[in-house]
Model the fold of this input.
Amino acid sequence: MFPNDYFSPEDQGPEREEPEKTGPRRFFGLLLTESGALLKLNLLFILTCIPLVTIPPAALALSRVVRGLLDDKPGRAYAYWAEFKRCWAPGWGAFLLTALSLFSSGYGMIFYMSYAGTSWIAFVPFVICTTVFLTVMQGTTYLWGLLALGRGMSLETVRLALALGLGKPLRAALAAADEVIVPIKLDAFSVKGMAELLRQLRSMERVNPGLTLAGVLITMWRNIDVVHQAEEILRSSRDLKVFQTTIRRTDRVDESTFQRQPLHIYSPRSAASIDYQQFVAEYLLGGRENG
Done:
């Protein structure tokens, strides 16, 4: 009923290897080995930007060719010209989307800011314009980066760029945290996505070496076969800590949200409320199961 390969050891990523050069080391290394090619590419970029209307496709073409250099692809003039011809639609699409969004939201932010201090009615559109402006700013870098990787200018690419941009606060929280508790509902998507989540946590080790996975907390537990199978898969996985306590599914949790009360106040004797109290005690005592 529940395939065992949803959380196989292979999904936990490859063994640790010596990291490749990144950041300034990679940049200066590229300058030493490809200085001639980079000089020619920048001269071509300047020449193709002279008509002004060619700036968006030229910028995207240069980004793609330079990105290719990082993958040890040749950065020749013909490669730039080929990308330049292909980048008109995505280049102008990204430019218009980001420029118009930034201009309109920035103008609205400045306009309503002068009235926000005196009228709460103007404060609402000011907050909306500011939110849109900051969101677009966060997503613009990722949008151009995704296009440089060869993606097309599509709704899926825009959504991914916004998701990556808005994901920065999560990385900031992980950078400042000591431990992470991962709540999980035992279904196929959650169990399969656990391996990707572990890879993301490992990617933060260089930023925050003290970050650890405190454990996985199983929520919305029910006494059915598929849940039992999924729980067994999680608890038998290598390098994965699973709390002994499970949070049972109960309708009291949903009811407490409508009543705007914490669960332990709305229904202190409900199954979920008791389970959460046991989980807190287990966490504070450090009684965690090492899967």
